[in-house]
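FORM 7B: Structural annotation worksheet

SECTION A. Query
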Amino acid sequence: MTEVRTDLLVDGYEVVIGIEIHCQLNTNSKIFSSAPTEFGAEANTQANIVDLGLPGVLPVVNEGVVERALKFGLGVNAELGLYNAFDRKNYFYPDLPKGYQITQMPHPIVGKGYIDIVVNEGENNEYPKRIGITRGHLEEDAGKSVHDAVDGMTGIDLNRAGTPLIEIVSEPDMRSTAEAVAYIKSIHQLVTWLGISDAIMAEGSFRADCNVSVRKPGEALGTRCELKNLNSFRFIERAINREIERQIDLIEDGGQVIQATRLYDPDKDETRSMRTKEEANDYRYFPDPDLLPIRIEQETVDEIRAQMPELPTQRRTRFEDELALSEYDARILTASRELADYYEEVVGKIGTNHAKLAANWVMGDLLGALNKDDKTIDDSPISTELLAGLLTRINDNTISGKIAKKVFTAMYEGEGTADEIIETKGLKQETDTGAIKAMVEEVLANNQTMVDEYKGGKQKAFNGLVGQVMKASRGKANPQQVNQILKELLD
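SECTION B. Predicted structure
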């Protein structure tokens, strides 16, 4: 039995969380039909006779769906189901025309695997953890009930019916809300990094069901409740916290937790029961007679493995080893594949010996500006070539770090290259020793009080004199030279 971390207990209870993630795969057509999968089309314009489940139609497996599932399996170090098969999961729901969902039960395409995550508990308290993955199986998405299109009525939009999903089921290895959120974010990062899903949570292409239970340390697993269809990291965190609180309060008051599916109401910040939880036998699974089992040759797996990009953890390790970045910097810069590519292109243009400088500017000024404008690195108005040009001018002392920030702002606003902005605005750094010495001498002559304070042992007075020189030079004097000349003249 795994040792209980007492620092993660909530009011003396151990929290146990397992996650089921429904991730839409980004094929152009659906899993069993040729209907398109584009989001946002007019209702019921992207569902054909296969998606509608009309009599006599036959599903055909989309090869691209299988390839994407295999990529995911390789990405989580999983056993691959080289023999996998589809089953029918029988239940009635208005947006499920066939009365069953085609999924995989005993023979999934992805078997046991794992993913390594980094958990941030706040207050600089971070720790790594390995989360087991039970399985990943392919299935078709259902349609969607629309409650606000017609007054007083519920409509059905079947555009989503048949969209390919991989359902990723974790082991119940998470022991806190922070671990659950870190795991979901890691899976989200992986599927977008691999290019198998856009995983846009607001569009429903990446949704999480969270199974939550509590128990006293050392006791058997408690009764779990499933929080259904959570589609934002903030709501996931709030929903799990409220459910933990609800279950503990219920037990402490002498009640019992009833296994059920629950919904989270963000307006009331509470979970409420949706239905009692079904078991597998309630769905009457049986092999789909219209779909033959899939046999995958090892040669196919090898081809897909050869096409796989360097994974986030591998790239993070390489950034640490080859570019001497800290673990924190490497993790931030590999938050997305696009960001990692951008950073590495900048380093390629200015040299690996300036990797830390590039990291500081990408993580600080660039990401700060993009976040403020709600943009991603793909939307950056500063190309890798432009940023490399700016960093080159810092390295060759054409401009100081302070002036560089002015150049960056102008460059972000589209005013040209670093060289053009430096020339147009007259921002070139003053490095002539004689000119700087003359400015320093003038400042010393005009600030005798600060000179006396420095000689009396007040270090702050020295910083004040530096500031006066920089002001006199309008920020153009080389700070290192200013410091050196000041010390020589004062000491």
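SECTION C. Observations
Residues 233-252 form the longest helix (20 residues). The longest strand covers residues 126-140.

SECTION D. Sign-off
Analyst initials: ____
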